[in-house]
Amino acid sequence: MEQEIQDVSIQRIQEALPHVKGIKNDLIIDYNELLVPESRHPIHKYPIRMDGLFISLREKGQIRFSINLKEFEVGPNDLVICSPGDLMQSSSPKEGAHLSQIMMVSSHFLKEMYISLNSFMPFFASQKEHPVFHLTDGEVEELKNYFMAIKKTVENDDYFRIDITKRLLAAYLYKLGSILYRHRPELQAEATKPLKREEILFKEFIRLVSEHHHKERRVDFYAEQLFLSPKHFSTVIKKVSGKTAGQWIDEYVILEIKTLLKYSAMSIQEVAYYMNFSNPSFFGKYFKHHTGMSPSEYKAQV
User: Fold this and answer.
1) Cβ-count burial of 236 within 10 angstroms (0-12 exposed, 13-18 middle, 19+ buried)?
2) Quick check: helix, strand or coil at residue 173?
3) How far, in Å, are 66, 67, 99 from residue 36 at the CA level?
4) pLDDT tens-digit profile of 206-257?
5) Radius of gyration for the alpha carbons in the chain, expressed in angstroms and rounded
6) Per-position b or e across 207-235, b if 16+ CB within 10 A of its CB
7) What is the pLDDT of residue 125?
């Protein structure tokens, strides 16, 4: 039987694992092996799309993650970050002791925190290609102090529990950003710049692509949504991210096609029509142009 892709929300995880602490449908936090045993949670059995920001910092044990169809071996002191919409699947953890700091935060909760987005913008464009970071023992301990403060606050029944959690989570994210800049010093100069209108447009463009890529591949469609001419729109996206708008759209489309070919029960023709291609022939040419193989060749090898 072929596997199916699932959208996993915080609410679904809370329903599957009621012992995991959280705040409504906005936050879950666990200092344990949230992802085991395999029979208790779909994250091991099926690929899932993250409905929120997922952060996992492994202290003990080894596990393999597939993030946007790329394989990563994750061990002690490895930090994993997945953004909303990312596709993730993990294998069963290897034998031995396992311990992880794990959080998942909804996009809604992040917006309510009102943190300065320009501090994290340099990582936004590169995170999909670099979702795993190896930290030092000292950095793990730094984050653990913030993490445990958040966890304790979530577990308490304080009157201002949600507000305190937001402030602590913001502090955690800023500390995390500081640590990541130590590892990616080339991005520090970008972080000091004020968030420009172009960067806000890029962030909105990525949101639109994430929402519409299975139906819309035209650059002018996204330009129209942002009330820009296609030429000016393309210039802005290239300036901010280093990639053209077309490249971003194609990356999302190809990832979606690969995911459907690999995991869904759809035929190649059904995938073509689901992704709004006019016919299977054009679909095949598009896929081969970007991957070097036909859809049938890709489907056969997976």
Assistant:
1) buried
2) helix
3) 16, 18, 11
4) 889 988 999 999 999 999 999 999 999 999 998 888 889 999 999 999 989 9
5) 20
6) ebbeebbeebbebeebbebbebeeeebbe
7) 58
Question: Which pair of structure tokens corresponds to residue 193?
Answer: 């710049």
Q: Is the pLDDT of residue 62 over 90?
A: no
Contacts of 5 (CB under 8 A, 6+ apart): 46, 47, 48, 49, 87, 259, 260, 263, 264
Q: Does residue 66 sit in helix, strand or coil?
A: strand
Contact present, 181 and 191 (Cβ < 8 Å):
yes
pLDDT tens digit string along 144-179?
999 999 999 999 888 899 999 999 999 999 898 888
- Where in 180-239 does DSSP place strands (E)? none
Q: Name the token pair of 135.
A: 């930290």
Nearest to 69 by CA among 88, 50, 44, 55: 88
Dihedral in degrees, nearest 10, Cα atoms 87, 93, 97, 101? 10
The pLDDT tens digits of the residues spanning 95-134 come to 666 788 999 998 888 878 776 655 665 565 566 678 888 9
For the chain, the first-to-last Cα distance in angstroms comes to: 14
Sequence-distant (≥ 6) Cβ neighbours of residue 287 within 8 angstroms: 254, 257, 293, 294, 295, 298
> Cα(48)–Cα(131) distance, rounded to whole angstroms?
16
What's at 239, amino acid-wise? Answer: K
Token pair recorded at residue 250: 């194609």
Strands 87-90 and 78-82: unpaired
Torsion 77-115-212-281 (CA) sign: negative
